[in-house]
Specification:
Blueprint (H helix, E strand, L loop, with lengths): L12 H8 L6 E4 L6 H10 L4 E6 L2 H10 L6 E5 L5 H7 L7 E5 L4 H5 L25 H7 L2 H12 L4 H13 L7 H11 L8 H17 L1 H15 L5 E6 L2 H16 L18 E3 L9 H6 L7 E7 L1
Parallel strand pairs: 1-2, 1-4, 2-3, 4-5
Antiparallel strand pairs: 5-7, 6-7
Helix pairs in contact: 7-8, 7-10, 8-9, 9-10, 11-12
Length: 314
C-alpha cells in the first residue's frame, strides 16, 4: 500500500474545532496525527504565522503527512508516543501552547489496509502494533501470557463475558501444538470456546477480544493516563485540551481526570469555610460527552462510539 493512500475520516471534526477554537498565529499540538484530518483543519485556522506539531507512532501516518507538510514550514511532524508530549514540546521549543487535541482511536487505514490484524473480518497476521518497531505483537502476547493473564485482558479491556472460556481454549490449543499466527485462527478459537446457545454471536465476542488485545499490545490506557497530566501541564493558561475516545475505559479516564482538576476545594461538606485553599485548575467545556450527529453517523458509521470531552486551563 502506497503511504500516500493513508486515509482516515476524522470524527467529530466540527465539534472538535469549535471547542479548541484555533486562531491565527496560535500554537497547537495534534497528539494523534492519523490521517491528518484535525491537523489540516487546525493549519487552515492558525495560518502561516501559527505553528503546529503533530505526533503519531505509526510510521505510515508520519510518512504520508510529511508529504503533505512540504509546503507548510510551520508544521512539524514527529514519530513518537503521545505519552511523551512534554519532551516533544520541549524539543520543539513550544513555549506557549494554545490547544492540544487527541483522538484515542485507530485509523481506518490501520483497520482496513495496514495488514496488521486489527479486524477479525480479514485473515491477517496477528500483529496489532501501531508502532512496528515495538518488539511484542499480538501473537507474542497470546503465546507468552498465561491463561489467567489472557482472561484478565479480555475481561478488563474487552468486557467480554466469556473471557475465561476463550482464554482456556487458546492456551489448550497452544498446548496441543497450535502455532497461532493469523486472525482467522483466533476467530475460530473464540467461536469454539463459546457455549452453544451464543455461538451465533461469535462476531460480537471476537470484536471485544480483538479490541482488548489491541489495547494491551499498544498499552493504550497507560499511554492515555501518562498523556493527560503532561498535556495539561504544558498548556498555557486559557489553553484548551480536547480528547476523543472510543471505549468506555478511555472515556472514564478522561472524565475522572477533568473532574479532579475542575473540583477545587476538597474540604468536607460540613466545613463552614474552605481551609484547603485549593482552586479549580480547569473549566470543563463539555458537561456531557459530545457524540456524533445523525448526519455524521450516516456518513461514517465508525463515529458511533466516539465521545468528545474538552476543558479550558484556568
Amino acid at each position: 500500500m502506497d503511504k500516500q493512500d493513508y486515509f482516515h475520516q476524522p470524527v467529530l471534526l466540527q465539534e472538535v474545532m469549535g471547542l479548541i477554537n484555533p486562531q491565527p498565529g496560535e500554537i497547537f499540538i495534534d497528539a494523534t496525527l492519523g490521517g491528518a484530518g484535525y491537523s489540516q483543519a487546525i493549519l487552515r485556522k492558525i495560518g502561516k504565522k501559527g505553528r503546529l506539531v503533530s505526533i503519531d507512532l505509526d510510521s505510515d501516518a508520519v510518512e504520508s503527512a510529511r508529504r503533505l507538510a512540504q509546503q507548510n514550514q510551520n508544521w512539524n511532524i514527529v514519530q513518537e508516543n503521545f505519552r511523551n508530549i512534554d519532551k516533544i514540546a520541549e524539543k520543539h521549543k513550544l513555549n506557549q501552547i494554545h490547544g492540544i487535541v487527541a483522538d484515542i482511536g485507530f485509523s481506518s487505514y490501520e483497520l482496513d489496509q495496514s495488514g496488521r490484524g486489527l479486524s477479525f473480518q480479514k485473515d491477517e497476521p496477528l500483529d496489532m502494533r501501531f508502532d512496528q518497531s515495538q518488539p511484542e505483537d499480538a501473537r507474542f502476547l497470546l503465546t507468552s501470557r498465561s491463561e489467567a493473564e489472557l482472561e484478565k485482558i479480555f475481561r478488563e479491556y474487552g468486557e467480554e463475558k466469556f473471557s475465561r472460556q476463550i482464554a482456556r481454549r487458546i492456551k489448550a490449543s497452544q498446548a496441543d501444538g497450535l502455532k497461532l499466527h493469523k486472525t482467522g485462527q483466533l476467530y475460530e478459537l473464540i467461536q469454539a470456546a463459546l457455549p452453544k446457545p451464543v455461538k451465533h454471536k461469535a462476531a460480537d465476542s471476537a470484536r471485544r477480544v480483538f479490541q482488548a488485545l489491541r489495547i494491551a499490545v499498544n498499552h493504550e490506557l497507560e499511554n492515555l493516563q501518562d498523556f493527560l497530566p503532561k498535556a495539561f501541564d504544558i498548556l498555557s493558561a486559557g489553553g484548551r485540551l480536547a480528547v476523543v475516545s472510543f471505549h468506555s475505559l478511555e472515556d472514564r479516564i478522561v472524565k475522572e481526570f477533568f473532574n479532579q482538576l475542575a473540583k477545587g476545594c476538597i474540604c468536607p461538606p460540613d466545613f463552614p469555610q474552605c481551609v484547603c485553599g485549593k482552586s479549580p485548575l480547569l473549566k470543563i467545556l463539555t458537561k456531557k460527552p459530545v457524540t456524533a450527529s445523525e448526519a455524521e453517523l450516516a456518513a461514517n458509521s465508525r463515529s458511533r462510539p466516539a465521545k468528545l470531552r474538552a476543558a479550558l486551563k484556568l
